[in-house]
Amino acid sequence: MDRNHHSSDSAVAEVHRGFTSTRFVLVEPSHPGNVGAAARALKTMGFSRLVLVSPRVPQVQSDPEAIAMASGADDVLACAQVVPTLADALNGVHWSIALTARLREYGPPQWTPRAASGVARDEAMHGEIALVFGNERTGLSNEDVERCSALAHIPANPAYSSLNLAQAVQVLAYELRTAFVAGEAVDAAPVAAPPLATQGEPAGPRAASDEIESMFAHLESALVALDFLDPANPKKLMSRLRRLFARSGLEREEVNIVRGIARHILLKTKRGGGD
């Protein structure tokens, strides 16, 4: 009985940790009403961490339309964090997923919201995660998408697939809540299989978003120094490398190894060792 009680408490603690370690990021939202409605969508599903990247209305948390659309989720709206860039919004995050209205040729692995939420639940047990949503009119830029670990696409009606920003937030928040409360990853096959843990070897701490971005900057400098990457004609090399690394679920030690390789390349080519 005691063992079962302890197991139940542990499961509840894991679910609670998932909700508190998840942040929802809106990149350059245009309409205060959508921000308020997104806050309401989060609260109805048990989430509370809303991050706004350079919103069009600077004090959007106190905008009357946003407060009206929050409809009781004023606390989530008032506590929303406002930051200037997506990099700031992802600071300390080790795994993130970008929602996109269209399938993309390049970028991280692309999953359905249900499959992505199953993976997100597991990732939330290891630390901070983020769900990233783009501007109402233009969505997320390719650069923003490539900062994320994975990509989700809502398979809506092809004849009319335009979801309102807050509706998209609601769909993802619902799927993630379902995954958390179920206590196990939802049973759905992603478009691309999630990374598998190395057999027989315990996983190390996951690398945070800012550490991964520093690794890519360092690696790009090394590839330029080797004349492997032409800055004037980069094609899709870095995009493909980002996709490759996104599939692996980078650990902090692995990031350090890649940066060590880049540092030695730069030293050997006498172009400096980087940070």
Low-confidence stretches: 184-200
Query: What is the count of helical runs?
Result: 11
**Main sheet specs:** 7 strands, parallel
Series of H and E elements: HEHEHHEHEEHEHEHHHH
Q: Which structural class is indicated by helix and strand composition?
A: alpha/beta
**What's the count of strands?**
7
Shape: globular
Radius of gyration from the CA trace?
A: 20 Å
Q: Could you tell me the mean pLDDT? A: 83
**Termini gap:** 54 Å
Lateral strand order in the biggest sheet: 3-2-1-6-4-7-5
Strand content: 5-15%
Fraction of residues in helices?
Answer: 40-55%
Please, could you describe this protein's structure?
It is a single chain. The protein has eleven helices and seven strands. Strands 3-2-1-6-4-7-5 form a seven-stranded parallel beta sheet. The protein starts with a helix and ends in a 7-residue tail after the last helix. About 6% of the residues have low confidence.
Short description, anyone?
This protein is α/β, with parallel strands linked by helices. The protein has helices at residues 2-20, 32-44, 64-70, 74-78, 86-89, 113-124, 142-146, 165-182, 209-225, 237-246, 252-268; strands spanning 22-27, 50-53, 81-83, 95-99, 110-111, 129-133, 150-152.
